[in-house]
Write a structure and sequence with these properties.
There is one protein chain. With 447 residues, the protein is an alpha/beta fold. It has 15 helices and 13 strands. A four-stranded mixed β-sheet has the order 4-5-9-8, covered by helices on one side. The protein has a three-stranded mixed β-sheet with strand order 11-13-12. A two-stranded antiparallel sheet has the order 1-2. It is elongated. It starts with 6 loop residues before the first strand and ends with a helix.
């Protein structure tokens, strides 16, 4: 079922309503420092739902009894005279956090909640707060200790958020509903963009990015969504490394220097040479950047595979736009050269499928394309000698750029017509499976 493009976590992929089933009730005195506005009402409604879930399901995975967080606090990060959380000022702190020292869960209504709703939908608030509540649950269940690495703490919390979201998507929440198509993709995108500062063993937060890469975050949430709370308790440094496979550590180091190559004829020529060496096709496709009958120069798609002439036809301006670096300070998903190059690779591997006589116009085509693109990206993560002497190696942030593309345009996981696999959740799963395996396994899994 994991390899079925029409199912997510055992559920059928569908688009439909997402968000509160009913109008959230008025905020009560349970939330300290509230302004009584819509954002706080929605946040409390989400907390009520998250607590309802854990009240009924905590004992299925963990020993002991569930106890709700004792204090909920709302603040406005634009208020210079706002309250403190765990001894830290909230002014300028666009964040949500759990402080274990006084069992307090706090959120910024002034910017964070409003922005999450605007860009990623109401259910992004539930995902955000479910992650913070996950920190309370992992302490309750004694999943972590003083010496537990920050990355492990955060990955467990992402996973526990996924467990709750699966319950909502399954129609079991009395307050919220969540569709498994685009709306779940929006939640994954929000999880990538809206990051917490580091939650250290003794303080609520400091600076930095503890969650790891977009790939780390999404696969941790998927683990909880697919496998349940017990699987979240199994996350440790070894499990995180297993999800990363044998990819070079430089791809996961946020402090590494990230650079983007230009998307032009020279880069694409190098890509053709590189992909030819990785896959060694018997009948390699050719490249045209002047347009063809199946992708005219003014065509809408950035790159198309034309099986009748075994050619990759590129709309260079469109591909360059796809690979233009984004400004993440403006809450954009990480985009850059590998957003474009991963799409280019996915069209190249359609030629490999065509050579095997496989159908090119189905959802399985898209899953195979994403998986084979993952195989290529694994090989591109380390230097490879080419006859031309040129070199193209993935660097820090490049996998995040590919993940962003999978969630937004979906072209890496699309068929020859550009029709994407319907769920971003499934697209990323197929891409990740390719990163950790081989081309032969891609064909076997998605057949």
């Amino acid at each position: 079922m994991l390899y079925d493009p029409d199912r997510v976590g055992g559920l059928a992929v569908s688009d439909g309503p997402s968000g509160p089933r009913d109008v959230p009730p008025p905020v009560t005195d349970r939330v300290h420092n509230t302004d009584g506005g819509d954002d706080d009402r929605l946040a409390l409604f989400a907390i009520d739902d998250i607590e309802d879930f854990w009240q009924h399901h905590y004992s299925e995975a963990f020993s002991g009894a569930f106890s709700p967080v004792s204090t909920l606090l709302s603040y406005d990060s634009d208020d210079r005279f706002g309250p403190t959380v765990c001894g830290n000022k909230t002014y300028g702190n666009t964040n949500a956090m759990y402080c274990h020292r006084n069992d307090t869960l706090a959120w910024d209504r002034g910017s964070l909640i409003r922005t999450a709703r605007k860009y990623f939908g109401d259910m992004a608030v539930n995902a955000l707060l479910a992650h913070e509540y996950g920190h309370a649950v992992q302490r309750m269940a004694k999943l972590i200790h003083h010496w537990t690495p920050t990355l492990v703490r955060e990955q467990q919390a992402d996973c526990l958020s996924g467990v709750y979201l699966r319950w909502v998507a399954g129609g079991e929440s009395p307050r919220f509903q969540l569709s498994t198509g685009d709306d779940l993709s929006h939640i994954l995108a929000g999880a990538i963009v809206i990051r917490d500062p580091i939650s250290s063993p003794t303080e609520a937060s400091s600076s930095g990015d503890p969650h790891g890469t977009a790939l780390d975050r999404v696969t941790a949430l998927q683990r909880g969504f697919d496998s349940g709370a017990e699987a979240c308790g199994e996350i440790d440094s070894d499990e995180i490394q297993q999800r990363r496979g044998d990819l070079p550590s430089s791809l996961f180091e946020s402090e590494s220097q990230q650079s983007d190559v230009g998307i032009d004829d020279d880069t694409l020529s190098t890509m053709m040479e590189l992909l030819g060496k990785i896959f060694a096709p018997a009948d390699p496709p050719t490249l045209s950047s002047a347009g063809t009958s199946c992708n005219p120069a003014g065509g809408t798609q950035p790159v198309v595979y034309c099986p009748s002439i075994n050619t990759l036809a590129v709309n260079m301006p469109a591909l360059q736009q796809l690979g233009a670096p984004s400004d993440e300070s403006q809450l954009g998903l990480p985009q850059g050269d590998n957003t474009a190059l991963s799409v280019f690779t996915s069209r190249y591997v359609l030629a490999l499928q065509h050579d095997r006589g496989l159908s090119l116009d189905s959802a399985l085509t898209g899953m195979r394309a994403a998986c084979l693109t993952g195989v290529a990206q694994r090989n591109m993560a380390e230097p490879m000698a080419l006859p031309s002497g040129k070199m193209l190696v993935l660097g820090a942030g490049d996998l995040d750029e590919a993940i962003s593309g999978l969630l937004t345009n979906g072209l890496v996981a699309s068929d020859v017509n550009g029709t994407a696999v319907p769920a971003g959740f499934s697209r990323i799963f197929a891409f990740h499976s390719g990163l950790l395996s081989s081309a032969g396994q891609c064909y076997q899994r998605f057949s």
